[in-house]
Amino acid sequence: MSIMYKSTRSNGDKVTASQAILKGLAEDGGLFVPDGIPGLETGLETLADLSYKETAYEVMKLFLSDFTKEELMYCIDGAYDDKFDTEQIAPLVKKDGAYYLELFHGKTIAFKDMALSILPYLMTTSAKKNGVKNEIVILTATSGDTGKAALAGFADVPGTSIIVFYPKNGVSPIQERQMLTQTGENTHVVGILGNFDDAQTGVKKMFGSKELAAQMNKAGYQFSSANSINIGRLVPQIVYYVYAYGQLLKQGEISCGEKINVVVPTGNFGNILAAYYAKNMGIPINTLYCASNENKVLFDFFNTGKYDRKREFILTTSPSMDILISSNLERLIYRIAGEDAAKTKELMDALTSDGEYSITSEMREKLQDFVGGFASEEETHAAIKRLYDKTGYIMDTHTAVASEVYYKKAEQTGIKTVIASTASPYKFTRSVMNAIDSKYDSMSDFELVDQLKEISGVAVPQAIEEIRFANILHDTICDKSEMEQTVKNILGI
Q: Is the pTM of this model over 0.85?
């Protein structure tokens, strides 16, 4: 079956996968969704025998159906190579009864690597397929991890430039240093005086501006996105949930067809949406636990059916989850609305104008696959210490939110559970080490790195070593109202 893509907000023309990847966002401001979710062609029993690359091909060939086998294998082989520090790419480790899917073994030690290692290959292949002559400007907002992963992926890729906006005071010191030391003639990093939602809103506004698009085209540029709004980000994320099921089979932890639970720490929803797509492809997933930090807008949504961003924005020690507008949720809203584009647009417009929307009782009934949970800052830190004291295993703050929700909600179901472990603890050393013992707070950031190595027995990732003495290369800061002008200045238009 050939999969085409359509907007969540209108019933306009459908586009191919490569066209959707190039566009990033639909012209009407909606997100691209597949016109059907294909079923896995390979039997569940065979998943145990597949490598990560083989699993990626089995999933991606179904969603990216206008790519040839040769094109897809070129992308997959280029992405999942020795830039990951393990041949497994995404190891599944059992600790204290749960299975942690380690998604942080890539170049920037966060789960975003899983998709952003392949997106540049998908993007440049798509450009060739569609005869694009303009330089592609990757415009993206980050709450910490997407930025570095996208910068690393697109650095010095011919025919592309990348501009990343991040909240100047809303990322961890390591996250910021990773971005500000990024090399590459085509890379640009801008700190904004605002939060992540401001950055994301500014980016979406630029994508929706026909005037700016015309100016860009005249100058030989066109926008695309590395954010999770791009379907080229979402499809690779489906892969690791299919792979996790295969690994459980391979390790003899489940029988073929046995249902599992999945817990995902999320602010922007794309990571758990990918698990939902995997379930709809035929992976036996029972319940999807959406784990929130103190910015628990998603927890409230799943429990009340009301999405309300009119609340205090809280800076936490899991900064990549400090989000009040979950853009990817729109794809799920579209699905539970019976693929009613008008209804989806109505709700998204209400979010923009009123800061809230409520779904119908019929739509709520279609959310039975999901359970919302959340962890406070105190619970997050306690979860890190508890797992370390019991097993010696150290997890980052985001994974800890998911771990706490597992113990609160999923453990008692008796169903084996995969927890998406979304970042290396080395990315959040101060928060992690303070959770284990407050005595570490007096140490500098890189003293903490060395101490973490000592108590965990896990080698310091190359991603951390390379920024220890790296020079700061980016120092641009702007107000949230100046984002478009900043882009024009960078591109010289």
A: yes
